[in-house]
Amino acid sequence: MSAFAHPFFLHAILAGTAIAAAAGLAGYFLVLRAQVFTGDALSHTAFTGALAALAIGWDLRIGLFASTIGVALLLGFLGRRSRVDDVAIGGVFSWILGLGVFFLTLYTTTRSTANGGAGVSVLFGSIFGLSTSSAWTAVIVAGVLCVALLGIARPLLFASVDESVAAARGVPVRLLGLVFLALVGACAAEATQAVGSLLLLGLLAAPAGAAQRLTDSPYRALVLAAALAVGEMWAGLAVGYAVPSVPPSFGVIAAGTLVYGLTFLRLPSRGRPQVRVARAGGSG
Predict the structure, then answer these.
(1) DSSP class of 125
(2) CA distances to 33, 55, 69, 239, 240 from 247, in Å
(3) Whole-angstrom Cα distance, residue 64 to residue 218?
(4) What does the pLDDT look like over 251-267, one tens digit per residue?
(5) How far apart, in whole angstroms, are the C-alpha atoms of residue 129 and residue 135?
(6) pLDDT per residue over 109-128, tens digit each?
(7) Could you state, in order of their start, the residue ranges of all structural domains in the chain?
(8) Quick one: which H or E segment has residue 111?
(9) Strands (E), 28-131
(10) Is 149 exposed, middle or buried (0-12, 13-18, 19+ CB in 10 A)?
(11) Do 39 and 204 contact (CB within 8 A), yes or no?
């Protein structure tokens, strides 16, 4: 029987494609802006937020979106011109981990018997367990994120490469940085359903890192990052379906790691496309 004859696989393909596209777009800017560590912080935030919601008795998605967007904005406010720095991330990171331990203890001692697998699904993802409504919700949310990221792509590219010149040209650098971080937070919350909080960083960073090594053109790299993320999502879902003992989230990240590793075989390391991006962002 074909995999597409199973509703759970169709739901996974539908939601996974949209989520991967959004993660690829967001991840490219994280790599370009040297903010990949932000994705790592948000992955731990997603787990803490989900556990907090579960401990209180709320839908875990409320905790996911509230925590990741809130922490992303907090990191933006603590950074310079909404660019997150390592000191701010380190401070917030330790605080989030402490909260995570607290909510994990609270959840396991009070509510784990009601939904014992919820914590595991947040850690490793549960994309094969999405219902029809959850899959379509993921598509809508990811679609909005893709449109928003593409809408701010041009000024964000300019601000990412030459912040001072962009500010002098009237680009609202700080506001743009905060909007971008909020979108990354929402993307992290949504992507947790697909690959889990532990592997979230791989979906954000690996396709974008490979795309940046494969082309110097920022717009081509942006599209390529999304395409690679979608392809790796499909590969992971196919492996997860063909080999039931392999979690699909592992397949997704394994595919991403393989593709990124292959870019080192023959391609030299490429620097940030500063000149071309600056011209593209500064013209018009």
Answers:
(1) -
(2) 31, 26, 27, 8, 6
(3) 30
(4) 999 999 999 999 988 65
(5) 10
(6) 776 555 556 666 777 777 88
(7) 3-282
(8) none
(9) none
(10) buried
(11) yes
Query: Strand, coil or helix: what is 83?
Result: strand
The tokens for 78 are: 């603590």
Residues 6+ apart with CB under 8 A from 65: 49, 185, 186, 189
Query: Alpha-carbon distance 47 to 63, whole Å?
Result: 9
Taking residue 36's Cβ as centre, other Cβ atoms within 10 Å add up to 16
The CATH architecture annotation of domain 3-282 reads Orthogonal Bundle (1.10)
pTM of the model: 0.84
pLDDT at 122: 74
Distance of alpha carbon 147 from alpha carbon 140, whole angstroms:
11
pLDDT at 153 over 70: yes
* Polymer length in residues for the chain: 284
How many other C-beta atoms lie within 10 A of the C-beta of residue 24?
30
Residue 232 has pLDDT above 70, yes or no: yes
**Contact 30/206 with Cβ under 8 angstroms?**
no
128-147: average pLDDT = 91
Contacts of 144 (CB under 8 A, 6+ apart): none
Q: Provide the 8-state DSSP code for 79.
A: S
What is the C-alpha to C-alpha distance for residues 98 and 245, in angstroms, rounded to an integer?
A: 33
Q: How far apart are the two ends of the chain, measured CA to CA in Å?
A: 54
Rounded Cα distance, 122 and 189, in Å: 10
Amino acid identity, position 34: A
